[in-house]
Structure prediction request, 406 residues.
Amino acid sequence: MSRNSWPLYEVFVRGKRGLNHVHVGSLHAADDEMAVRHARDLYTRRNEGVSIWVVKAADITASSPDEKDPFFEPSGDKVYRHPTFYEIPDDVPHM
Amino acid sequence: MTDLQQDFEATIAADHRIEPRDWLPEGYRKTMIRQIAQHAHSEIIGMQPEGNWITRAPSLRRKAILLAKVQDEAGHGLYLYSAAETLGADRGDLTEMLISGRQKYSSIFNYPTLTFADVGVIGWLVDGAAICNQVPLCRSSYGPYARAMIRICKEESFHQRQGYELLLTLMRGTQAQRDMVQDAVNRWWWPSLMMFGPPDDASPNTAQSMAWKIKRHTNDELRQRFVDMSVPQAEKLGVTFPDPDLKWNAEREHYDFGPIDWSELKRVISGDGPCNAERIENRRRAHEDGDWVREAAIAHAAKNSRKAAVA
Ligand SMILES: [Fe+2]
Ligand SMILES: [Fe+2]
Prediction:
């Protein structure tokens, strides 16, 4: 019995106009075109999407092997990037 | 305890999700792969009992519905295999483990579907029991599994409703049709209760799975919930469950039910159910018949990418 050697693809679906593509899962396919067809059959059986992206899992570059590590630290200590950092009196309108 | 282990424990304690590239204790990884694979196999094998009736569905409407349902079950299997792969499992290995009997699937699918009423009862009771089991799994600590379960649960509600509607229709029919429904209910009731697994005092892995938040309720809790939900639905439908001990217990505010024949579950799990051999044989044949297609598609893709490189 030969082994299924179809590569793994990650699938991203745009739920409707105005939204980003969002990762929904993965599947195996022999090539890109088949991956899009399979993604349609597997992940959009009930109008869950208006557009699909597929990409070979092997082609994805990830930030780091671990989801929570120093890579994100530079943004962790910059509280001044958030509006809540600034104290404004309550009676200033439209802020 | 190492830093990595501490991070893991803290994530679980905070009720945050574990994601694929996090460090995991080996036991968690193994348990999770086993649970997801077994679940995926159940969806895949679960296509067969109902698939049996697609060509003989009594109307085009029923055929379209049944086809869509069976196709959903295939989809569920694929979402779950995809989740198992995020833990390092290999799709081909998982298929082989199923075919060779090294990994199990839900024993419910080893019972035959004798009449079209079975299609309705499977939707109502078997998918109903699956929903009871699966809704809490939407909060499983393993992110990809929890997300797959959310998707699956949304689709399952159609499965249960189409089954119940099918039965309502039969119950409005002839006496022979009503008898057919009651007969199917009699055959599926006890196996449906067994879907929740062995009783808590005989379920040694439950404590660890609850600690890891892989499991949110015990088998007996979920079984009780299912019984409580099903009794009023049966009354509305006009059928009875084959259990003389089934009655409301005002003190517990739950239905009491009779003892389950656990030796039957053991027998069916260990391979001696009415359809075990047939289910696996069908799966093996489908896989082997697909061999040349998988090979040809790979060859075609390789040829196309060579062409593209030359052009
Ligand atoms: Fe399912
Ligand atoms: Fe289902």
